[in-house]
Write a structure and sequence with these properties.
single chain, mainly alpha, 0% strand, disordered N terminus
Length: 130
């Protein structure tokens, strides 16, 4: 989970950092940046840090965040081949465990995970590095 709302990959005033390098902001990357900023500015998931369900969600958030930040840092806003493979594997495995954890924790967790899964879906639609 996030202890501090740090925003690596997001430049001040909400611009993706790759714009400063002359990159082109696609609507998908702009939406990804908006969703990620909104997620980071939302309150962290409440609960005990020792709760394995909360830990499962935190691990997913951390994993997903590393991919989001990498995309937002790339001048062309594309997925690297390695990240594209990771997303494909995750998609093939499904999200049953993360949904089960969120379901057991209740509504705030379900909304939290739904937001993360929307970000994951958007990532899977981004163009791949050429």
């Amino acid at each position: 989970m996030r202890d501090e709302p740090a925003e690596p990959g997001i430049a001040p005033q909400g611009e993706c950092s790759h714009l400063k390098q002359g990159g082109r902001l696609t609507p998908e990357v702009a939406r990804l940046g908006q969703l990620w900023r909104a997620h980071l500015s939302s309150p962290p998931l409440a609960g005990r840090r020792t709760d394995t369900r909360r830990q499962e969600i935190a691990l997913f958030e951390s994993w997903l965040g590393s991919i989001v930040e990498a995309v937002l840092e790339r001048p062309d806003g594309t997925l690297s081949p390695a990240h594209a493979r990771l997303l494909a594997i995750r998609e093939a495995e499904g999200n049953q465990e993360i949904w089960a954890a969120a379901g057991e924790l209740g509504e705030p967790a379900r909304a939290y995970v739904a937001r993360l899964l929307a970000i994951q879906e958007l990532l899977s639609k981004l163009p791949r590095e050429r």
